[in-house]
Amino acid sequence: MLNKILVIVPLLFLFITSTTAQNLEDYIDLAKSSANNVEKLISLDSVLSKSFRTDPDIFIEYSLSYIDLAKTLDSIEGAAKKAMNVQNILVNIKKDPKKAVKIINGVLLRKDEIRDSFLLGGLYLKKGMANSKLDLKRSIMDFSEAMRNFAVKDSIHRADAYLYRGHAYSYLGDFVAAGNDYDKAYNYYKSLEDDDYMLRAQQGKITMFSLHGFYDLARNERDALIGKLIELNRTEFLATEYYNQSLDYQKIGNHQLQLQFLLKANKYQNDGQKNTMYFNIHSKLMEYYSANNNLRRAKEELDLIEPYLSQILGDRFAELSYNGAKSSYLMAIGDLDSSLDFAQIKLEIADSLGIEDEIMGSHLMLSEIYRKIGDYEMSLESKDRYSKMRDSLYYRSNTNSLAYYKSRYDIQEKEKEFSKQKSDIRLLEKDSETFKNLMFFVSLAIMLLFGIVLLYRNRQNLNSKKKLQEVFSQKLLVSQEEERRRISKDLHDGIGQQLLLIKNKLILIGDQETKKMVDMTIDEIRNISRDLHPFALQELGITRAIEHTLQRIDENTTLFISSEIDNIDDLFSPEEEVNIYRIVQESLSNIIKHANAEASKVLVKKYTNNITISIKDNGVGFDFPAKYQDKKSLGLKTLLERTKFLKGQMKVISKKENGTLIEFKFPIQ
C-alpha cells in the first residue's frame, strides 16, 4: 500500500496544484466526497496548504483528518509531519497544549515505523515545547529524547532541544544543568551562524542568572546584550530584556527602577500582538500600581488586558501573570473574596508549572489576603509555607552559587595547569641557565634551613603557651558549670521551696492575688535555674534536651525554628553533653539577640565517626574576623573554647544582610 501511495501521490499532487481555479472550498468538497483514500489524502493536504495561515480552525480540523487517514494508509511519516505542523497552531494560537501532546503521542505509538531522524526527533521536540506549558519535568524528558533521536545532520534542531531544555531546567532551579544546555545551544548556533538563536541562547542564560540571584552578573550581561541589540537594530528583542530586568529590580526591592524598566519594555512591545509578553508587561504594571495605591493607573492597565483574555486561555505563563495582578488589584480596592479566588488560581497554575518562585509568591499573597479577611489560622499556614520554601530556595541558591563558582574555579585551574606546562617548556629551553639556578637554590636552601630551625623553635614555644591557655580555658569552663550547678540547686532547693511554702499558706487564707504573684516568681526562678544548669540533660538525655530548648525558644520568641535532630544519646560523657548543649543554647541566644532574624534551622546529624551540628539563620549577618577580634565580643570565643574542649571543629559562614551559618563537627570516641 505504501509503495502505491509513493507512486500516485506525486502525480495527483501535480495535477491538483496545476488547477489554479480551485479554491479552499473546492478542496474541502473534494476531500469530503472522494471515495478513494489516496485522492482524499491529497485533497486534505491541499486544504491544509491553503488554510495554514488563513483559517486555524479549518487547519486543525483537517490536520486531524489527515493524520487519522495517513495512519490507516500506513503513512506514519506523513502523519508525523502534520502532527508537528498542527502543534504550533494548537499551542501558540489556540492555547491548547494538552491536545497537541495527545496528537503527538498518538503518532509516537508507532514510532518504530519512522525512519527519518528529523521527524522522530522533531516529534519529541514539539511535544516538549507543548509540555513546557503544562509540566516542565515532562518537557525535559521530551527534549532529552529529541536529542537522542536527532542525527548529526539535524544539528540545528538539536540546538533547539538544548535551548528549550535549558529554559526548563532554569525555571525548575537546576542552575548547572541549565548553564550547560545554554552553552551547548549557543555553540551549535554559532557554528551554524544563526545570529537570532545565538541571541535567544544568550537571553536564556541571562534569565537563568536572574532566577538564581546573580543579579549583578545578569545586569552586566543584559546591558551588553541590549547594547548589541540596539547596534544590530534588533528592537524586537528589547521588550523581553527590559521586562526581565524590571523583574530583577523588583526582587531586590528597587521599585523605582522596576517601574522605569517596565515602561521601557512597554515602549518596545508591539501592542498589535496580544502575546504572552503583552500580558506580562501590563499585568506587572497593574500589580505595581495596585501595590502603590495608584488605583486609577492600575484600572487603566486592567482595561488594556481584559478585552483580550480569550487570547491567553491555555497560555499558563500569561495566565499566571494576569491572575497574580488581578488578585493584587482586587485586594487594593477591598474586594478580598474575589482577590482570594484569583490568588488561589495563581497558586494552582504555579504548582502545575513547577515554578517555585511563583509558588512562594502565591503563598505570601494568600497570607496577606487571609490576614485582611481575619482568617489568621490560614494566614499563618500560608506564611509558614512561604517561609519553608524561601529557606529551601535560599539553600539551593547557595548550592547553585557554589556549583557555578566551582566550575569557574575548575576552568581557572586548567588554565593555570596549561600555563605551567608552557612555563616548563620554556625552562627546558634555557639549559645554559641551569647551573646558575642550581647554585641560587642551594644557597637559598641553606638560608631556609636556618630559618626553619628558628621558626621551629618559636613554634614550639607558641604551642606550649597555646596548650597552657587551652587547659586553663577548659578548666575555667568546667569551673563555671560547677558554679552554675551550685547556684541553680540553691535557687531550686532553697528559695524555690520557701516560695512553695508561702504559696501554700496563701492558699489557706484565700489570698488569690498574692498567690498569682508568687506563682509568677516561682516560674521565673525555675527558668533561671534551668538556664543556669540544664537538669533536662539528666532527666531527658542530650537529644530531648536540645529539642526541648528549641521548642521553648519557638514558643516564647518571634523566631521561627525548623529542625532535624538525630538521636545522639550515650555518645558523649556528661561533661561533653553539657558543652554540646551550651553550644546550641548560646548559638541560638546570639541569633535572638543580634541577628534580627525571622527564621532559623537547626540540624543535628549523626555519622559513623562524628556528629555535625548546623545552625543557620536568615538574619543581618556579620563580619566574622572583625567580630572575633572585638575584645567585647565573648560569645564566639566561648563557642570556640567549648569546641576545642570537645576536640571538634567550628566553621562560620556569614555575610552582612545574607544570614549566618555556624557548623560544628565533633568526633565520636
Task: Give descriptors for this structure.
5 strands; extended; Heat Shock Protein 90; Serine Threonine Protein Phosphatase 5, Tetratricopeptide repeat; 669 residues; 27 helices; 75% helix; mainly alpha; five-stranded mixed beta sheet
Task: Describe the structure concisely for a colleague.
The chain is mainly alpha-helical and 669 residues long. Among the domains are: 269-416, Serine Threonine Protein Phosphatase 5, Tetratricopeptide repeat (Alpha Horseshoe); 434-533; 541-667, 2-Layer Sandwich (Heat Shock Protein 90).
**Per CATH, what is the topology of the domain at 269-416?**
Serine Threonine Protein Phosphatase 5, Tetratricopeptide repeat
Write down how many β-strands occur, each being a DSSP E stretch of 2 or more residues: 5
Proportion of residues in β-strands: 5-15%
Helix content: over 70%
Tally of contiguous helical segments: 27
Going across the major beta sheet, what is the strand order? 1-2-3-5-4
pLDDT < 50 runs, ≥5 residues: 1-21
Please tell me how large the radius of gyration is: 35 Å
Secondary structure category: mainly alpha
Considering the protein shown, what is the CATH homologous superfamily of the domain at 269-416?
Answer: Tetratricopeptide repeat domain
Provide the CATH architecture of the domain at 269-416: Alpha Horseshoe
Largest sheet: 5 strands, mixed
Question: Span between N and C termini?
Answer: 79 Å
Mean of residue pLDDT values: 80
| Name of the level-1 CATH class of the domain at 269-416 | Mainly Alpha
Anisotropy-based shape: extended
Q: What is the oligomer described by this structure?
A: single chain
